[in-house]
Amino acid sequence: MASSRTPPIKDLADLKQVQRTLAETREREAATAAAKAAAERKRAAEKDLFTRAIGATEPLRRKAAVVPLAPEPPAPIPVQHQLDEQRVLRESLSDEFDVTTLLDVDDAMSFRRPGIGTDVTARLRKGDWSIQAQIDLHGLRSDEAREALGGFIRNAYKQGLRCVRVVHGKGLGSPGKQPVLKTKAQRWLIQKNEVLAFVQAKPAEGGAGALVVLLAPARR
User: Fold this and answer.
1) Largest alpha-carbon pair distance within the chain?
2) pLDDT for 54-65, tens place per residue?
3) Strand pairing partners for 198?
4) pLDDT, tens digit, 9 for 90 and up, residues 87-136
5) How many C-beta atoms surround the C-beta of residue 156 within 10 A?
6) DSSP at 87
7) Is the separation of the CB atoms in 83 and 74 below 8 Å?
8) For residues 187 and 5, what is the distance between their CA atoms, to the nearest angstrom?
9) Residue 158 pLDDT more than 80?
10) Going by C-beta distance under 8 Å and a sequence separation of 6 or more, which residues neighbour residue 133?
């Protein structure tokens, strides 16, 4: 390591050299100090600029994160169910409905709506439409049979079925052996807009104790 001691002064020239050396040392120290001070001022200025830009801050509190959740939506209103119920009320089937002017005068007392030709009931008798579903009203009271038949026709129509069978019985067990339920079933079916026509079933399909019913195509 080189010695920092000032070399011995022999004459005036050596004195001047020492003075120059000391002056240069002081200048270097002053320059170093000035550079350090400038760097400190720059850092302070940058910190102050950041503080002014973001404004006042405070430390975060360490708590469990809370995520606001949207309120649970209300249950959907069963609009279709309400419409179906209203339709059922509007289409209440009457036992007093006069069918005598609407039934074709034949042995089977068939029915076809205006605009439906006799060829349709003829094809229905022959079995041109296969039976896709049936309901048996045996053993039901009048009110029960009316409600069951109305629901059956409505659901069959919704499913797109075209031909169904309604078993009402021959009335042999009724007072006076009169086919009361058969007459009522005819009345109820005529009042259902989904029904286009019906005929008495073939002997193998129930004969006088059943009706084969043609339904309108379901709306899409």
Assistant:
1) 162
2) 666 666 666 555
3) 111, 213
4) 554 455 655 545 554 555 455 668 999 999 999 999 999 999 999 999 99
5) 21
6) H
7) no
8) 134
9) yes
10) 152, 156, 161, 164, 165
How far apart, in whole angstroms, are the C-alpha atoms of residue 213 and residue 162? 8
Residue 179 CB: number of other CB atoms within 10 A? 17
- Tens digits of residue pLDDT in 13-41: 777 777 888 888 888 888 888 888 888 88
Residue 209, Cβ density class (10 Å: 0-12 exposed, 13-18 middle, ≥19 buried) = buried
Query: Smallest Cα–Cα separation from 210: which of 152, 174, 166?
Result: 166
Amino acid, single-letter form, for residue 192? K
Beta strand 210-215 with 111-112 is unpaired
Asked if 119 and 197 touch (Cβ cutoff 8 Å), the reply is no
Q: What is the pLDDT of residue 74?
A: 65
| Amino acid making up residue 9 | I
Q: Is 49 left (phi over 0), alpha (psi -120 to 50) or beta?
A: alpha
Question: How many CA within 13 A on the CB side of residue 87?
Answer: 14
Per-residue pLDDT at 162: 97
Q: How crowded is residue 204: how many other Cβ atoms within 10 Å of its Cβ?
A: 7
Distances in Å between the Cα of 153 and the Cα atoms of 91, 120, 159 are 12, 19, 10
190/47 Cα distance (integer angstroms): 92
Task: Calculate the dihedral angle through the C-alpha atoms of 175, 181, 182, 187, rounding to the nearest 10 degrees.
Answer: 130
In this structure, are residues 102 and 114 in contact, taking their beta carbons and an 8 Å threshold?
Answer: no
* Tokens linked to 87: 């339709």
